Amino acid sequence: MSLTFNRSIVAFSRTKNEDVERLVPIQLACPRTGKPTLYLHDVERGVLYELQKVVGPGRKACWLMDNQLHKDGSIQFISPIDPLFIALPILHRAREHSEGKFRTIDDMFGCEQDMQHQKLLDLAGFEAQLAHICDIRDVSPELRAYRVNDDKVLVWLMKKMERLLPAIPSLITDDIKEDQKQDVYRQEAVYLLAKYIPESQLKTLLQHLGIEEIKEETADITSYFVDNTASYFKASPSMPKAHDDGNTPKKPETPRSLAKVNTRGMKPLTSFFKKK
């Protein structure tokens, strides 16, 4: 299966231009939905990036750069992603299909032909990272086998949530009682993580923390940042299509993560084009 560029894009990143230019598009399964999704691979440094598009109700714009007008004026960001999020569903499937037996990483990540999951093995430190969520057995001096460990996964997700907590207060503008702040902040942090984990894993994390599940969010978690793979790439006929049974829940007009963003004092985009 091959992917080719379908259009040019304008994206923001903390990396330099020459770093962005060497990024190679690869197709991996979204860890939450399992759908084919675009990621960017820095082959030289062994780093994986995600490409996200900022969306908003009624937003229309274009870019004027280097005397050229780009019709698609969407705001997009290229940011690093922890490859363990991509690996987690693959590891769970491998354990299920092998009835709990240990398997080598080549066996687990090279068997899904419709994706490019074997590219994960080229990422810097990926094999060492698996120790955070897997049990490991030495088959021989040069060969190891792995099996995902649910207890380790839960500890790993808890650490991810705790790293998000310091940033949560700045995203919430509602008045919250002092004795409720910890629960509210934890809930927000968990639902930020929810985009990167399967629904079953989200339920486990919520249960462990004693947080009540929000039904409408687990059905279709959304935010300002969305994957926009289909807009930029076209695939060969062998590319799997997303399944649509007609029962997909409708997204809320105002996402939960957007509703609490502090936009006070922010000017609308159109204000920059008014006559002076």
TrEMBL record:
Keyword Cell division attributed: no
Domain of life of the organism encoding this protein: Eukaryota
Keywords: Nucleus
Chain ranges of the Rnh202 triple barrel domain: 26-82
Subcellular location: Nucleus
Database matches in InterPro entries: RNase_H2_suB, RNase_H2_suB_wHTH, Rnh202_N
Gene3D superfamilies: 1.10.20.120, 2.20.25.530
GO terms for biological process, alphabetical: RNA catabolic process
Cellular component aspect of the GO annotation: nucleoplasm; ribonuclease H2 complex
Ribonuclease H2 subunit B wHTH domain location: 85-206
Basic and acidic residues bias: start-end ranges: 241-254
Pfam families per UniProt: RNase_H2-Ydr279, Ydr279_N
Region: Disordered, residue numbers: 236-276
Function: Non catalytic subunit of RNase H2, an endonuclease that specifically degrades the RNA of RNA:DNA hybrids. Participates in DNA replication, possibly by mediating the removal of lagging-strand Okazaki fragment RNA primers during DNA replication. Mediates the excision of single ribonucleotides from DNA:RNA duplexes.
Protein's UniProt name: Ribonuclease H2 subunit B
Species this protein is from: Lichtheimia corymbifera JMRC:FSU:9682
